[in-house]
Amino acid sequence: MSHRLNRRQLLRTATASAAGLGLAACGDNGGGGAAGGGDGDSGSITVWSWTTAAEGLRAVVPSFERDNPGITVDVQDVGEPAIWDKITVGLAAGGKGLADVLHVGVDYLPGYLDKFPDGLADLSKLGADKHKDAFADGLWPTVIGEDKAVHALPWEVNPLGLFYRRDYFEKADVDPAGISSWDDLIAAGPKIRSASGASLLGLDKTGATQDVDFFQNLMQLQGAFYFDGQGDITLAAPAAVQALTVVKRLNDAGLLADTAGQGTSKRLLSQGKLATVADAAWAAEYLALKFPGQKGKWRVMQPPAALPGGQRNAIVNSTYLAVAGSSKRRKAAWRFVEYALTKPAEINRIFTAGGVFPALKAAYADPKFSAPHPFYGGQKVLKTFVDSLGAGSGATNFTSDYSRALKLASDAQSKVLLKGADPAAALKDAAKQLAQQTGRKQAA
After folding, report:
1. CA 225, CA 217: separation in Å to the nearest integer?
2. Where are the alpha helices (DSSP H) in 271-356?
3. Which residues contact 435 (CB under 8 A, 6 or more apart)?
4. How many degrees, rounded to 5, is the angle at CA 119 between CA 343 and CA 100?
5. What is the pLDDT tens value at each position of the chain, 444 positions in all?
6. For 197, phi and psi rounded to 5 degrees?
């Protein structure tokens, strides 16, 4: 999941018009806004997604159209981040020009529900509640709006893992089985660096790209985030301080490579200069596709705990399919969403075609999720992530103010890494600013 503040500023302000940004109408929704939607159960529906995810959805279309005569589906690759501009502007224009089905990230969904309460259709009225227990734990609360209705179904889930260079660990005589916390890995870091010449992790220290996924992941491993379940600010809470302290310790020990600059992280990986990558399930195929020459050298483990003895599993992000409130064919759109995301055979067809790790628990019975992966030396990589999901994970409350928290967290991290600021002090200042900017109170 990429973080680009300018896209989230669109969400906060929602002042641009579709005409002002030259947004071309898509689909056949008309200009009546959300109130002008309809519950048509046939006809042509349009789906917006991006890149490989769009390819995955296209793989379902033939079987869906066969099983649902009278409905045709046009899946469009809108591009990412362009899709966020188009969805946000369309919602701000009362639904004008929106597709019938929208692919939405967990970092945008709360803002859409908050700013545009009628923008995404109420799927509870169409039967969505019966699927409440079908998806990975921790995802269902994120689809519920203030009206207590369901406004999307989970599609993609990304449990966290730690990818590591097995050859580097062996050269350093470091046993991965002995790594259970970041304390352990930081202690082993100098040996790994000495044996391989590689840094442990890469991070944009300048904050130019708001590279705080690792910091966020360390909080999520502690069951925390920028906001608690009630939306109160927890950016300066002990879990956040611990997370930023781990980042600081890695930097102080010379174990962090600076990835500032476009393409730096990919270049470091291609050159073998990173010993580990803390990332989610989607990265399993990414590494295999982008670095085929490193076949057999990588493995994956459960992420080290942020605190010794702490949990070693977390869902770090997810994506969803929603139906536009302005769609003239909400029932037809819902039938596609339900078909694609709640049938194991179909969601696994999407996974095979597009590499989007499914949130549907029933999908994991497929043998592919316990199969050896050649890039990882025959390790059952996908099973590692399925096992992580089985351990359970709480929901992350991104809220409609995530973009503000993201910017302040990035600034705090850069102060710590570049200026030697104290993590607790930097986060205390960031949390104070976040409260001033949002009107939210800080959690006790």
Report:
1. 9
2. 283-290, 330-342, 344-354
3. 233, 441, 442
4. 45
5. 333 333 334 333 433 333 333 333 344 443 333 557 899 999 999 999 999 999 999 999 999 999 999 999 999 999 999 999 999 999 999 999 999 999 999 999 999 999 999 999 999 999 999 999 999 999 999 999 999 999 999 999 999 999 999 999 999 999 999 999 999 999 999 999 999 999 999 999 999 999 999 999 999 999 999 999 999 999 999 999 999 999 999 999 999 999 998 789 999 999 999 999 999 999 999 999 999 999 999 999 999 999 999 999 999 999 999 999 999 999 999 999 999 999 999 999 999 998 899 999 999 999 999 999 999 999 999 999 999 998 877 789 999 999 999 999 999 999 999 999 999 999 999 999 999 999 999 998
6. 75, 10
Task: Tell whether the torsion through CA atoms of 220, 226, 231 and 237 is positive or negative.
Answer: positive
pTM: 0.90
Query: Which residue, among 224, 405, 442, has the nearest Cα to 316 in the 3D structure?
Result: 224
> Does 238 sit behind a cis peptide bond, omega within 30 degrees of 0 on the bond before it?
no
Cα–Cα distance for residue pair 264/96, rounded to 1 Å: 40
Q: Does residue 384 contact residue 378 with C-beta atoms inside 8 Å? A: no
Cβ(350)–Cβ(59) under 8 Å?
Answer: yes
Q: Position of tokens 């064919």?
A: 329
* Lookup result for tokens 């692919």: 103
Give the tokens for residue 215.
Answer: 């910091």
Six-digit token string for 359: 């949130």
DSSP state of 401: T
d(CA 22, CA 219): 40
Name which of 165, 425, 438, 194 is nearest 275 in CA terms. 165
In order of 107, 225, 343, 440, the CA distances from 231 in angstroms are 14, 10, 33, 7
Measured CA to CA, the distance from residue 100 to residue 123 in angstroms comes to 13
Instruction: Give every CB contact of residue 317 below 8 A, 6+ residues apart in sequence.
Output: 1, 105, 106, 107, 158, 280
Enumerate the β-bridge partners of residue 71. 43
Listed residue (434, 438, 439) closest to 234, CA to CA: 434
Chain position carrying tokens 């700013």: 115
Q: Are the C-beta atoms of residues 78 and 49 closer than 8 Å to each other?
A: yes
